[in-house]
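Practice problem: predict the structure.
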Amino acid sequence: MDLVEINSPDDLESWQLPWQALAASMPQTTFFHTFDWFRIFWKQAADRAHVQALAVRSAVGLVGIIPLVAPRKSAGGAETAVHFPTVPWTSWFSAIGREQAAAFSVAMAHLAEKTRRRRPLDFGPVAGAADANCRLTAALQRAGWQPRRCPQRTLSRVELVGSWDDYQRRWTPMWRDEVRWARRALAALGPVRLDRHCPRPAAQGDGDPRWDLWEDCVALARAAATGRCSAERPLSGQNLPWSRACHAAAARLGMLDVSVLRLGKRPAAFCYGYRSGGAVEIAQIGYDPAVARWGLGRLVASEVIRDSFERGDASLDLGPGDFRFQRELRTSTATRYRVRCGGAGWRHWLGRKFSRGQDV
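Answer:
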């Protein structure tokens, strides 16, 4: 096997069709595995990081592609960790293609030779399945690193099995009463309607981004924005350039999933995310603080789940965290991990000594 470094956006363009074929061969993907996402990420991050992709080839064809990001050195000159091109609302990431073990093995050996294992690595979030973790950690071990795996986040999932009525029976009596009360209270103020948009791909004659829904979501997110939590969500002010480009790309690919709960004609709450193969991933939920006392958060999440049952979706990811609405609505949890390797350089060794309070 051999490896090709893709080091410029111009070089990347020639890999679009092979990338798309690899992604289509994977049993499970997200929007963040697409060529379009990586192109957007590269454009946004190019001024502060070295972005590249490692394409692994065999005698019979392309095996896999591993996108990587190496941020510029910190102000103090310390090496920063190489990582995947992810954002805080990415649920999980991996190499592109089915042959993950072979792709990781060649790519990690290349990184070890190129950096002499002096640069730290921080890969995540990776799936919790044992085989998915073993592919990456085994490749790192063979390349001479000493990887450490630790939990990064826990996701709340709703497995859409059976019917909506069956699913509601799983709710606690208190939660069922609260959702019913919220629906009645809002109905007294005006007609309540869920406006959900899940376009088919542009290649099938759709790809409509529905910018009116985008603007509704942004306005509600701005009204509800609070501190650090909002900075880690796609529709906050500093992330809008990313998410606007992602919105258009996801719509074009048929991977957009956006819902606005309306009270009359007024947008009252939203649920924003992406979808792939019947799996829905919610990136952000928000609501109008002016009517927050009516339980809009729990209601919009419940209505989206009900609609997903009607659409025949397979699962819905409520995102990271352990908020009450997630505990009440989820049917299972999934842990995502990060795999970290310390660089072998003296700066990193010295930093670890001081951080542990050890004598040098």
